[in-house]
Amino acid sequence: MVFTLRWGIVATGGIAELFFKDIIADPALRGVTDVVHIPVAVASRSLEKAKAFIDMHAPAELRAKVMPYDTYGALYQDPNVDCVYIATPVSSHYENALEALRAGKNVLCEKPFTVNAAQARHLHAVAKEQNVFLMEAVWTRFFPLAKQFNKILHVDKAIGRIHRVYCDFSVFFDPVKDVRMYQASTGGGALLDLGVYMTVWTLLTCYHHPDNKLSPPDVIRAVMFKSPINPEVDESTSVITVWERAKIMCIGTVSMMTDSPPECVIRVQGTKGQVIIPIHGSRPEKIIVLYDEPGMGNRTYEYPIPGQGLFWEADAVARDLRDGKKFDDNYPVEESIFVMELMDEIRRQNDMKFPEEIEFVEKY
Hints:
Elements: E1 3-10, H1 14-23, E2 35-43, H2 47-57, H3 60-63, E3 67-69, H4 72-76, E4 83-86, H5 90-102, E5 106-110, H6 117-130, E6 134-137, H7 144-155, E7 162-170, H8 190-207, E8 219-226, E9 234-243, E10 248-255, E11 266-270, E12 273-277, E13 286-291, E14 299-302, H9 311-322, H10 333-349, H11 356-359
Parallel strand pairs: 1-2, 1-4, 2-3, 4-5, 5-6, 7-10
Antiparallel strand pairs: 7-11, 8-9, 9-10, 11-12, 12-13, 13-14
Helix pairs in contact: 5-6, 6-10
């Protein structure tokens, strides 16, 4: 029997457009037959924007079935909405997700989950209190490629014992055109916006290493280059983490000053060879395994993505709700909290603070 998940989409920006297009795509195109998605509501700050979004992106046969709202709260009260997808700016994630959870809605919240770990912990507590589903939308974690990456490293142990990891996620942003990235009031800067992808591969390699047993790194050392345009945000950040249980050192970098080198954004080095992921670290389509010994049979794994690739996280949510789960096994909220704790420590070491109005946490 096919399970149908009815979505309410909060906000009408670029990521909301991509998510909408992906969930209305035929699941068969990605080999999925057990779940299907239907958008039933869209909310914006104005009714005109919500209607325009629906008219632009919904096919004719679906257009009249998607309800537009001019407040997020109205969407949260819609009984036809099974799950809310929050696509607002990061500075609003905590407030928006909190309201949705308190309204009894299941929530998929875009990354980065919150501005700090305290906010993430509060959302987790409210979700448990309300007995509803909650997950951060780190889409990359749900790619078939990510599962293959884990298998190569930790199941097949194709490159032997892992010694060192290099993760880079850098995207050039024009400070004139991309103003949001240079504003602390919106949670801007390289770390919070781009660092999510750096941590994806750090966690898959180190945190999830069988010997690490989901333990935090023993050493965290971080340095930042603050923006001369706005010293409240970072333009580049580098982080070294040491994972003693797994005997791995990881070097992670993010930057808004330049792009990542296309030939290699992830490099995992082991005793037998290395695993490389070419650009881009958010939406990779290829894994390359290179062996040190000639004749070992270097391999390339290709994973073309039909559409944007946001549907895989939506499929995971649908299956979780179908099965009565409140958190996802592949990417539980506890791991989102851990990532935010890591971000907090990096910011603490570099005296990077966001304005109080977006760092706030309600008492609970």
